[in-house]
Amino acid sequence: DQVHQARQQKINTKLLNEFLDKTIKKMAIPAVKGRLIRIKFINQVRTAPPLIVCHSNYPKLVPVNYRRYLENQLREAFDFSGVPIKLSFRES
Q1: What are the two backbone dihedrals, phi and then psi, of residue 3, each rounded to the nearest 5 degrees?
Q2: What is the pTM of this model?
Q3: CATH of the domain at 82
Q4: Which domain holds residue 6?
Q5: Which residues contact 51 (CB under 8 A, 6 or more apart)?
Q6: How far apart (Å, rounded) are the C-alpha atoms in residues 40 and 3?
Q7: CB 40 within 8 A of CB 73
Q8: Which helix (H) or strand (E) holds 39?
C-alpha cells in the first residue's frame, strides 16, 4: 500500500528544483569531452510510474553513473523506495 501511494505522488516543480540544487552541490556533474553539462531544471510530467524530466544543455552526454546517482537521490529524498522511476533527459 505504501509503494502504491508513493507511485501516485506528484512532486511540486519548486521542490524538485530545490532538490536538484542540493544534489548538484553534493556531487557536481562531470564534464564530458570538454563540455560543461548543466541540468537547468527538472519537473515531474507523469505519475504511476513517476516520470521525471531533466532539462539539460547536453542531455545525451550526462553519464550513466550520474543518472543513477540522481535516481537514487530522488528515491531517498521523496520516499520512492520500491517504485520504478523513469528519468528522461531533454535538451533545453
Answers
A1: -65, -40
A2: 0.89
A3: 3.30.300.20
A4: 2-91
A5: 44, 45, 86, 88
A6: 29
A7: no
A8: strand 39-46
- Given the C-alpha cell 539539460, which residue does it identify? 56
Closest CA to 42 of 59, 26, 28: 59
- Side by side, the strands of the sheet bearing 86-91 are 39-46, 51-56, 86-91
Encode pLDDT of 36-82 as tens digits: 999 999 999 999 999 999 999 999 999 999 999 999 999 999 999 88
- Read off the C-alpha cell for 55: 532539462
What's the full length of the chain, in residues?
92
Residue in this structure with the C-alpha cell 530522488, named with its chain if needed: 74
Give me the number of domains the chain comprises: 1
Contact residues for 14 (Cβ-Cβ < 8 A; gap 6+)? none
- Rounded Cα gap, residues 61 and 32, in angstroms: 7
